[in-house]
Amino acid sequence: MIDKPTVVLCGKNIVCKESLSLIHKYSDKYEVYYVYAEKDYDSSKPIIDLANSLEVKVFCVRNAKELTDFYIISKPALLVSIQFSIILSPEVIEAGRDRLINLHFSPLPLYRGMAPITHAILNGEPRFGVTLHIIDSGIDTGAIIDQAVFDIQKMSNREVYTSCEWAGIELVRSNLDKILTTIGLRSLTSLSHEQDDSIATYYGQFDIDYNDSVINFNRTAHQVERFTRAFTFPPSLYPRIKIKEQMYRVLAPPTIGERSEPHKPGIVLRTDPVTISSRDRFLIFNELQEE
Predict the structure, then answer these.
(1) pLDDT tens, 145-193?
(2) How far apart are CA 39 and CA 53, in angstroms?
(3) Can you tell me whether residue 231 is helix, strand or coil?
(4) CATH number, residue 42
């Protein structure tokens, strides 16, 4: 009896869980393995439970070396990475060639790297998206298989993230059949197109500090409004303001009011509702919570 080729799914969270269900539908043709990072056990637990119920083999890795060893031994026909926190080693990328794919939360080639949603909101992007792409030796630079783009105006970070989750699930669903059909016949590059590096943007680990969540009113009102949305990810992250030594969480973006000259930025004009001057306009905060 000839062994079935293997598909390895690596990752965490809801998109990865739904992708496991989708991939498992092909278990008559492929052996399916699920791999999670030890440090992500909590966010991987629902997928582990699902894998066990589907009789999918589950593997835990602690670092890139253990993942490399697993990859070399298992020799998968396809590896799918979805919010996986371990970076694939050069050995895996070399061995996998175009049989490694990743789901990235951004409309590549824009917002490669870290915290793409946060940076997109801070930059005032009206649209965002998710991208299914081949993994190469760069950071989110591989050829694009498919992409979904949607409006994000007035959305918080949490809301954009949720939209990315649902768009990501649909992207996997709509492309999985042709991907699994193609890997048995020809290169996945036949399904993809190269990214346009001339318009690419990249943000690294130190380009954002989520601990620095206190609003700086020496900015324009629109910049402050975008900051509040970019730093809103309940229940773990909220923008904050300080009024008379008391810190408050901002639970909803402020309303932008009239021009605030000649007041200096950061002056509290009223307390009900809280109205504060920015560099150019008043900002009205209707939903605050004492810390």
Answers:
(1) 999 999 999 999 999 999 999 999 999 999 999 999 988 767 888 999 9
(2) 22
(3) coil
(4) 3.40.50.12230
β-pairing, 202-203 vs 144-151, is unpaired
Rounded Cα–Cα distance for residues 76 and 33 (Å)? 9
Examine the domain organization and report whether 140 and 45 are in the same domain.
yes
pTM above 0.70, yes or no: yes
Tell me how long the chain is.
Answer: 291
**Does the CA dihedral 13-7-52-68 come out positive or negative?**
negative
Domain with residue 236: its CATH number is 3.10.25.10
* pLDDT > 60? residue 1: no
Q: Are residues 97 and 227 in the same domain?
A: no
Q: Pick from 203, 231, 248: which residue ends a domain?
A: 203
Classify residue 208: in a domain, yes or no.
no
The residue type of 74 is S
Q: Match 């949607």 to its residue by tokens.
A: 150
Residue 254's identity, in one-letter code, is P
Q: For 117, list phi and psi in degrees, rounded to 5.
A: -65, -45
